[in-house]
Amino acid sequence: MKLAVLADIHANLAALEATLRDIDAWQPDAVVVAGDVVNRGPQPAECLALVLEQQDAHGWRTVLGNHEEYVIQQAGPNPPGKDALADIYRPTRWTLEQLGGDIAPLLAMPFQQSIAGPDGSEVRVVHASTRGTRDGIFPMTDDDTLREQIGHPAPAALCVGHTHWPLVRRVDNTLVVNVGSVGLPFDGDSRASYGRLTWTAGDWQAEVIRLNYDRQLTEEAYLTTGFLEQAGPLARLHLEELRSARSELFSWVATYEDDILHRRITVEEAVDRWLATN
Q: Are residue 200 and residue 234 in the same domain, yes or no?
C-alpha cells in the first residue's frame, strides 16, 4: 500500500503541477492534501480548482489548514483586519476575491482524515497537529510535546505540514512525518516537497520527496495575476520567502506588530525596512 501526502501549496500552481506529475508517476493508492491549498501566493483559484478536480476524478482527500480558516474568516460578517492592521490582511482578502467569494469548498474540508493500513491500523492526517491547525511540529519539537500533538489513541503514523520543515521521526510506536511544503518551503531548499508512505514488511516507512519546478513561472504569476500590486506590501515578503526558502512573515510580525498597532510605522514602511536589512 502506498500513500502520498502533500501540504502547504500556498497558491503556487507551478509547484503543485510538478508534484502532481510525480504523484501520478508513483501511482499511490491514496492521496491526501494536508491543508493550506490557498493564500500566501498568487494563484489560489487555480490551485484549489486543480485539487478539487483530483478529488472528483481520483478520490484525493483534503484537510483544513489555517490559511483556509483565514479566508473563511474574511468571508464572515466581522472579518479581522481593520484600521492599522488592514494591510496585513490584504493578501487574504485578495485570495477571497480570487475565489469569487466562494468558501464552500473550504468549509467542506474536515479537520482530519484517517486511512486504514493493511493491518487495520490508522494513518492520521491533520494540518499541524491534533491540537489545532497552528500547533506545528518542528525538527526541534521534544518527544513529550510530540506525544501530545500525536493525540490519543496514538496512530501508527501521523502526517502533517504547516511548519514547511520536513521531517521523518518515530516516537514510541508512531511514525511522524512532516511532509514539508509544496509551494513555500522554509528549510532553505526551494524545491517542492511532499511525503510518500509505503507499507513494507508489516510497518509504515516514509520518505520526503524534493522536486525541482520552474520557480520563474511562479515569480511571473506574482505580476501577471496582480498579486504583487493588489495584495498589499506583505506580498513582497511572500515573494522573498519564495526566493529564499526561508520564513520571513513570522519574524517580521514579531518585530513590527506593536509599532504598527500603535501607528508608529505603517505596514509598508515596516516591509521596506525588513527587506532592506534582512
A: no
Strands (DSSP E) along the chain, which ranges? 2-6, 30-33, 61-62, 112-116, 122-126, 157-160, 167-171, 174-178, 192-200, 203-211
Q: pTM score, two decimals?
A: 0.97
Q: Tell whether 219 is covered by a domain.
A: no
61-62 vs 2-6, strand pairing mode:
unpaired
Q: Note the pLDDT tens digit of each residue in 73-91.
A: 999 999 988 888 899 999 9
User: To the nearest 10°, the Cα dihedral for 188, 19, 146, 61?
Assistant: 150
Among the candidates 158, 185, 211, a domain finishes at 211
Contact 123, 114 (CB under 8 A): yes
Query: Does residue 216 fall inside a structural domain?
Result: no
Distance CA 241, CA 243 (A): 5
pLDDT in tens, 170-183: 999 999 999 999 99
- Which residues are registered as beta bridge partners of 196? 4, 207
Give yes or no: residues 142 and 111 share one domain: yes
